[in-house]
Design a protein that fits this description.
The protein is of the alpha+beta class. The strands form 2 sheets. Strands 1-2-5-7 form a 4-stranded antiparallel beta sheet. A 3-stranded mixed beta sheet has the order 4-3-6.
């Protein structure tokens, strides 16, 4: 092989090496960003599970679920009774529950509780849990995952909802489903995340957990705080 051919081969090999390293760097960067995001989502989901458990623990001790905090940084339940569903919707009283103040993205968790479940003693034979959750099927149609159109004693819904507004939490770019969750006091939406503007319900990254009524009653009964 001539010296010129050797030089050309070495130059080609160097160029290929630079391109390979560059492509690998891009892939690693993308994977790292996505991986970090997934870790944050898993932490947020774990916090929601902790919040649901802490809420039932609070009820087992106090004979009722806590009222919401009025402000995200407050951390304590409001002192006055709820006047209705909207009045019983706000922020999770994280300080009273012994939980972190914020989720993975530095924002306080939202919280909505059925008013009658925030009053002790809880009248199990008359209390109707009112919180409903819907999702969307492949065609975009809404369907219930928790509760139904009408909540009643024979067909209960959930006593409380706690949710994270997710990584974006941008009012200007959010879709109809996220806008619904920001203002809802009874009917909430939880569906797979999507960044597509054209997706049914628009872009979505909220994370939500419903407090199970049966679990709540079982823990309260075990603690003898359920009449």
């Amino acid at each position: 092989m001539t010296p010129r051919a050797k030089q050309n081969g070495a130059a080609l090999l160097a160029a290929m090496l630079v391109a390979t390293v560059g492509a690998a760097a891009v892939l690693m960067s993308a994977f790292g960003t996505g991986g970090a995001q997934r870790v944050r989502e898993q932490r947020a989901l774990a916090l929601l599970a902790q919040a649901s458990d802490a809420l039932t623990g609070f009820a087992a001790t106090h004979g009722r679920l806590p009222r919401p905090s009025s402000a995200p940084g407050d951390g304590r339940e409001r002192a006055t009774p709820c006047g209705g569903e909207e009045d019983c919707t706000g922020y999770l009283p994280w300080l009273d529950l012994g939980l972190p103040a914020t989720d993975s993205w530095g924002r306080a968790l939202r919280y909505s509780v059925t008013p009658v479940f925030s009053v002790a003693p809880l009248a199990r034979t008359a209390a109707v849990a009112t919180k409903r959750v819907q999702s969307r099927d492949a065609s975009g149609a809404l369907f219930f995952t928790v509760g139904q159109d009408i909540c009643s004693l024979p067909a209960q819904c959930a006593p409380a909802i706690v949710f994270s507004s997710g990584p974006a939490d941008a009012m200007a770019s959010s879709g109809a489903d996220e806008a619904n969750n920001r203002t809802a006091s009874v009917g909430f939406i939880q569906r797979p995340p999507s960044a597509e503007l054209s997706a049914p319900g628009g872009p979505f990254d909220d994370l939500l957990a419903a407090v199970p009524l049966q679990t709540l009653y079982e823990r309260m009964a075990a603690a003898k705080t359920l009449p």
